[in-house]
């Protein structure tokens, strides 16, 4: 086990749990808050121990679970844990599913809050990188009253706020190199079709030969390519609000604590304007904006058609605002009864994440009608306010993940051996999990959102578990650990996972460790009930030998 003191981390300039976890050599997770720029993740950040994906690392707060982040659903969002309330982080790198549960195969990361606090501490800082973008600032207030040793009670609370500005792609030179042009542009590239006309089957753009700098540039002799990275962020704009309160009461050999945690993480990301491939087919003589002469000088034949590949540059980048709210209430009772150290308690936690289309998204139903009825000119500038009439705004996905649990653990040294005392522990847990993932009606019209065709889902499960553990001193310097866990999932089945481990220290400078264990991972509720998603690929990077052999359309193929 590795123990990381928060006080040491803050001295190094870390201000969030995500930053601390990413500084640990044992953590190899690549899913951080910045990943939300190119994915629907709600701005979540995860831990991943021993090279495993985050769903195999169990994150605990004071030894108990926190609800998974509701949009990605794979684990607890590190952004929901306030660093200013954490005393230390205990990192168990060994696969510990025999003791903690099926999702602890990669290890356990336990965040321990301060036991008590007296006084008032106000702290804050502002950071500005050498290059443009990424400025950040934070402030926190920690206050507490009562002395556990003298008064028998303590209460403290923490309020913190942090804001980080986005880093745009154009703010970093390395991010603009070796980028490929998109064939979906503004004004539109279009596939011209008119039998008998020399230009039949070619892709044109009426902005040629200059296209529309700086956002688009000639892609070939007749069409343009879009520099979508000019609209994008490298890292999101992030706001974090956290509140944590803890009340502790000591009576005799027993300690009762109640704790509340509230966190809000707002992540705003920007990507390229909405791509609309084959969004509409216009006809010469019917659409008033249809050109009469192609860019290469060829006259347009009456009745010719143009299949549009258009981007919504007049609306700017697609801007998504993700709001992730975590709530947690926990009660704990621990102490000594009949020579047994015990710990029992209950906790309820939830995470609700909302994906909001703030600006730049296009309503798929309205854009097609606007193009077919001459409200928008895909070949050039449109009348004032035309694009605003097809913009889509509002909440697209609201998902909530809830976890309620009760547990107990008791331990005692049960008898003596020549090498020392044998210690044993027994524990159990009852847990209920629920996921309610609601795709809003508005989302079905959100082009390029990834969830336009998704449907709402929901599900729940009950979990019960019992585990045993023993520490056996075999000879001086050699200890053996025996452990086993039995889990029962209402929707998955049963599993029994044993573990045996040893620690041998022949001298103070030398230590050997080893373990053998069996583990499993039950699919999470999100694995089972996640909504379907859809994404797009760049057709120019792919080859269809059946419908477009050697780039020549055939058998109903279309080279766009």
Task: Describe the structure in your own words.
This protein has 560 residues and is mainly beta. It has one domain: Maltoporin, Chain A. Helix content is 5%, strand content 48%. It contains five helices and 26 strands. The chain has a 13-stranded antiparallel sheet. The chain has a five-stranded mixed sheet with strand order 1-4-5-2-3. A hairpin with a 2-residue loop joins β23 (457-475) and β24 (478-489).
Q: Indicate the multimeric state.
A: single chain
Largest sheet: 13 strands, antiparallel
Counting helices, strands and paired strands, the structural category is: mainly beta
- What's the arrangement of strands in the largest beta sheet? 6-7-8-15-16-19-20-21-22-23-24-25-26
Sum up the structure in keywords.
560 residues; mainly beta; Maltoporin, Chain A; 13-stranded antiparallel beta sheet; five-stranded mixed beta sheet; 5 helices; 48% strand
Indicate the topology.
Blueprint: E1 2-5, H1 6-11, H2 17-22, E2 57-61, E3 64-65, E4 86-92, H3 97-100, E5 107-113, E6 119-127, E7 136-145, E8 153-164, E9 167-168, E10 189-193, E11 203-205, E12 216-218, E13 224-226, E14 233-235, E15 237-251, E16 254-271, E17 275-283, E18 305-311, E19 318-337, E20 340-362, H4 364-372, E21 391-417, E22 420-439, E23 457-475, E24 478-489, E25 493-507, E26 510-517, H5 525-529
Parallel strand pairs: 2-5
Antiparallel strand pairs: 1-4, 2-3, 4-5, 6-7, 7-8, 8-15, 9-14, 10-11, 10-18, 12-13, 15-16, 16-19, 17-18, 19-20, 20-21, 21-22, 22-23, 23-24, 24-25, 25-26
């Amino acid at each position: 086990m590795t123990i990381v003191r928060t006080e040491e981390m803050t001295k190094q300039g870390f201000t969030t749990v995500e930053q601390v976890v990413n500084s640990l050599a044992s953590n190899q997770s690549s899913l951080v808050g910045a990943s939300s720029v190119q994915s629907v993740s709600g701005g979540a950040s995860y831990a991943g121990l021993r090279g495993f994906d985050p769903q195999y690392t169990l994150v605990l707060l004071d030894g108990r679970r926190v609800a998974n982040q509701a949009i990605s659903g794979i684990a607890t969002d590190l952004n929901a844990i306030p660093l200013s309330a954490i005393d230390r982080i205990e990192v168990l790198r060994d696969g510990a599913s025999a003791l903690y549960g099926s999702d602890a195969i990669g290890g356990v990361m336990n965040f321990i809050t301060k036991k008590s606090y007296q006084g008032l501490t106000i702290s804050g800082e502002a950071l500005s990188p050498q290059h443009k973008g990424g400025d950040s600032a934070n402030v926190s207030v920690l206050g507490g009253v009562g002395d556990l040793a003298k008064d028998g009670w303590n209460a403290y609370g923490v309020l913190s706020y942090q804001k980080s500005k986005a880093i745009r792609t154009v703010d970093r030179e390395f991010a603009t190199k070796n980028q490929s042009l998109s064939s979906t542009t503004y004004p539109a590239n279009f596939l011209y079709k008119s039998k008998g006309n020399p230009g039949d089957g070619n892709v044109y753009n009426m902005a040629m030969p200059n296209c529309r700098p700086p956002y688009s540039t000639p892609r070939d002799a007749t069409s343009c390519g879009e520099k979508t990275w000019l609209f994008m962020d490298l890292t999101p704009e992030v706001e974090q609000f956290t509140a944590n309160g803890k009340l502790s009461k000591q009576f005799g050999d027993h300690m009762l604590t109640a704790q509340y945690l509230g966190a809000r993480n707002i992540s705003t990301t920007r990507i390229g304007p909405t791509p609309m491939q084959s969004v509409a087919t216009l006809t010469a003589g019917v659409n008033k904006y249809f050109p009469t002469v192609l860019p290469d000088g060829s006259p347009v034949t009456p009745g010719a058609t143009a299949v549009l590949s258009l981007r919504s540059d007049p609306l700017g980048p697609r801007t998504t605002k993700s709001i992730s709210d975590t709530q947690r209430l926990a009660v704990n009772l621990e102490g000594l009864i009949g020579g047994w150290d015990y710990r029992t308690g209950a906790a309820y936690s939830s995470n609700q994440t909302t994906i909001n289309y703030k600006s730049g998204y296009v309503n798929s139903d309205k854009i097609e009608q606007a193009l077919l009825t001459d409200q928008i000119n895909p070949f050039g500038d449109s009348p004032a306010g035309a694009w605003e009439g097809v913009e889509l705004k509002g909440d697209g996905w609201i998902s909530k993940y809830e976890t309620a649990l009760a547990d107990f653990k008791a331990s005692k040294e049960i008898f003596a051996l020549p090498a020392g005392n044998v210690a044993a522990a027994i524990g159990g847990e009852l847990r209920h999990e629920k996921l309610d993932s609601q795709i809003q009606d508005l989302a079905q019209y959100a082009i390029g959102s990834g969830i336009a065709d998704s449907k709402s889902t929901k599900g729940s499960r009950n979990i019960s578990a019992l585990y045993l553990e023993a520490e056996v001193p075999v000879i001086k310097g050699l200890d053996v650990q025996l452990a086993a866990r039995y889990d029962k999932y209402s929707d998955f089945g049963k599993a029994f996972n044993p573990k045996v481990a040893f620690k041998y220290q022949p001298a103070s400078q030398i230590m050997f460790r080893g373990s053998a264990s069996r583990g499993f991972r039950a699919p999470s509720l999100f694995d089972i009930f996640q909504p379907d998603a859809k994404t797009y690929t760049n057709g120019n990077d792919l080859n269809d030998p059946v419908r477009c052999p050697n780039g020549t359309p055939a058998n109903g193929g279309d080279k766009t």
